[in-house]
Design a protein that fits this description.
Its main location: endoplasmic reticulum. This protein has 193 residues and is mainly alpha-helical. α2 packs across α4. The longest helix has 54 residues. The termini are far apart. The model has no long low-confidence stretch (mean pLDDT 86).
Length: 193
């Protein structure tokens, strides 16, 4: 493997270790310190900038490896068609084409996975930061209203007492309305007579 593909493999291995570290369930305090350091440190920002530049080169390597893989596949197919016409195949030529095809595919997968994992790593980091900020906001809201549970119970008791008062007043109103109707009905009957 050439030096630039060896460096790409090293970058891929580093990405895998970093991803694993990001998704390990650390306690909130540790996770907050680590992510705050990573998001605010100027040294980490410079390293991230250098890595972004290296991903440009990995992208170029990916497209080069892709072209090489297509070219070798086409050459291999042409050689197979020529050998079928002659009836005799050379084992060394077939082995050579198979090895070249394998190396080209390996390089495509290596660079492709490196690029894909960089996107996954970036998104995972952003989601983890959002989660930390959401947890901080939740903790602030929870501290701001510590007696929210007792407030709910108090309001429920007030509601029940108001409902009981309403029911008793409704009952009294209905009784008074019935008495009023009897009295006014009795007077109307006397006036008609």
């Amino acid at each position: 493997m050439t030096i630039y593909y060896s460096l790409t493999f090293l970058l891929l291995a580093t990405e895998m270790v970093t991803f694993t570290t990001l998704v390990i369930p650390f306690p909130f305090a540790v996770r907050k310190r680590v992510f705050t350091f990573l998001s605010e440190s100027p040294i980490v920002a410079k390293i991230a900038y250098g890595i972004k530049i290296s991903f440009i080169f990995v992208g170029i390597l990916f497209f080069d490896a892709l072209q090489r893989m297509f070219r070798i596949t086409a050459e291999s197919d042409m050689a197979k068609n020529n050998q079928q016409g002659m009836g005799v195949g050379d084992v060394r030529t077939e082995t050579s084409f198979a090895a070249r095809k394998f190396y080209a595919q390996r390089n495509v997968y290596l660079t492709g996975f490196t690029l894909f994992l960089s996107l996954v790593l970036t998104r995972t980091f952003a989601i983890s930061l959002d989660l930390i900020h959401s947890q901080e906001e939740y903790a602030k809201l929870k501290k701001a209203s510590p007696s929210s549970g007792s407030d709910v119970e108090k309001k429920a008791r007030e509601y029940d007492s108001l409902k009981a008062k309403f029911d008793s007043q409704t009952k009294e109103y209905n009784q008074l309305a019935d008495k009023y109707n009897k009295v006014t009905t009795g007077k109307a009957d006397k006036k008609k007579d």
